[in-house]
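Appendix C reproduces, verbatim, an entry submitted by the partner laboratory led by Prof. M.T., so that reviewers can inspect both the input and the predicted structure.
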Amino acid sequence: MKITIIAGARPNFIKIAPIINAIKRKQNEGFDVSFRLVHTGQHYDKNLSDTFFEELNIPKPSVNLEVKSGSQAEQTAAIMIAFEKELIQNPCDLVLVVGDVNSTMACSIVAKKCNTKVAHVEAGIRSGDLTMPEEINRMLTDSITDYFFTTSTSASENLLKLGSDPENIHFVGNVMIDTLYQNINRISAPDFWKEHLLNEKNYIILTLHRPGNVDEVSSLLELLHGIDNLVTDKKILFPIHPRTQAILSESDIKFKNIIFVAPQGYLNFMYLIKNSFAVITDSGGISEETTVMGIPCFTMRNNTERPETETIGSNTIVGTSLENLQKIFGMFLKNGPRKSGIPELWDGKASERIISILLDKK
């Protein structure tokens, strides 16, 4: 079986690493399976791309399509044009896509129009929020996918409601957690750990990237001031995207507790999360890792495509208002973290299940 694996953005790199490891193990066992790794170039900043390949021991991509940035339409179109040429020149039995970025949707469409089967890892998750580009990508990808690999029973149920073939829906667990378990003994403190006098539980991690939170200077500053005043005895570590940094550079306002640092590689960032007091984020994916590590996570969104992180895990959806965050975080400071657990099949073996299932379907 020839598999073409698509990676385009930071979350993709974390998800493909254990899948590639699983393929290599099957090769060592004598199975006839090979892979071609296609990097679309959707993320091209070294801290968002190359670093992850190096840290997670992902082999050098067979090709980098180098599409880079642009509007949603421009980027999607550029990926489709470049990947069509790539797939025609290097045909395969299966195109495997992960997650919900533009590369996921674009390469799925190209594959199906080239009569190539598609496997979607992390299929079926839904936020119900059509203002999110990722939600559109998920819906379109799942509408043409052949083999669905889900992280939760609720994701599988979403696919069944859409009429997907039950025989092709496979609840396998979470490949993000595979990567976490495979690298947990390799995580390390960043260079600034001692410089900022960081210690276990004496800081909070903050990540913000959604346009509604970071694109307007006055609302961003208001949000940051509110978060800055949430605690008096904790530092707040904010790995800030260069685009957000540029927005903030227009202001000379200082913060008491917030420390701005550059985007982190995987091993440093997981170390920071593991040793933090809590995480405040507008990301969906981070709540998966905090759930497994038992770190309280407060997600500044009105919804989540990962409901299991809230129903069983450490994640709390706090909405998008500063007032709601202040209220819920204040209750956390008073009452302590709520009980949490680890969702079913988040055991580090999802990638093995995926490759075994695909080889059975060969």
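The CA atoms of residues 7 and 13 lie 6 Å apart. Additional entries are available on request from the coordinating office.
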